[in-house]
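Review session, final week

We close the course with one last complete record, chosen because it touches almost every idea we covered. It is Arginase, a protein from Eucalyptus globulus with 346 residues. Go through it on your own first, then we will talk.
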Amino acid sequence: MRRRVQRDMSTIARRGVHYLQKLNAENVPADLLERGQNRVIDASLTLIRERAKLKGELVRALGGVKATSSLLGVPLGHNSSFLQGPAFAPPRIREAIWCGSTNSETEEGKELKDPRVLTDVGDVPVQEIRDCGVDDDRLMNVISESVKLVMEEDPLRPLVLGGDHSISFPVVRAVSEKLGGPVDILHLDAHPDIYDAYEGNKYSHASSFARIMEGGYARRLLQVGIRSITSEGREQGKRFGVEQFEMRTFLRDREFLENLKLGEGVKGVYISIDVDSLDPAFAPGVSHIEPGGLSFRDVMNILHNLQADVVAADVVEFNPQRDTVDGMTAMVAAKLVRELTAKISR
């Protein structure tokens, strides 16, 4: 049933884009299309703004916290170089977070049902915006503006549910611009995602960290779990001064990675977790299955021991269309979100 629904959603999405292409082919005036696009964008941002205001007011009224994790879904999949299933991930992750098979406390004892720990402002309506013919330059701006709207409501801090990894660029850009300076980034992934442009797409999920580094949004970038990297990936890493920790040397690097201290002298720390950083034995529901990855407890040890002021985070590249029947990877993604929540909230 779930797979049939996902196929139906994908078909609807394609029809929307095809409809717009048909309108363009029929020479609909450009100003008419632009006005319509602007209305949809304004409505989308208004929805995020009002949800964030409501949740921010609630948390401030309850008091007693400096930082609250706030879920923001960005269901974007079209910048993937292989499969677009990550666009369907945010609702599956939410479903798994609140699954009755486990309790609502994190390993560190944070209670997720407490709105001072976790709130949710909903999703950026990516497909609806794209159906209006909005290009990726403007879409990335909408994502950035949505993140900033969340951050305006102190003490909310964005915990973003992807989506493919292209979303990390507009999210990190927004965080850096809103805080007024660069952040340190801890990036867990099988791939460095630092191509200058992959298959001609500067917004490819394989190019997000090139955009981040060339924009000056990060001072320090640590990439952990890497086991699928090309010569360009290594050259780009050297160009931007990236600290790349490959799985082939993980045993040697483990002690360092499990005792990280980041963020001194910058505006905070951003954590980006691509689910394919995990070995597929733990998380088979990803587009790019790459054996030889981190165990789930490896990731937990890195997160739990990290000394940092985590100002924002994302979990990306979970592909529900490749998950097991029992939704194992959805539960893994949800557990990552739960533990990131504990890391952010205080």
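Two points worth writing down before the exam:
The CA atoms of residues 69 and 86 lie 22 Å apart.
Residues 30-62 form the longest helix (33 residues).
Good luck, everyone.
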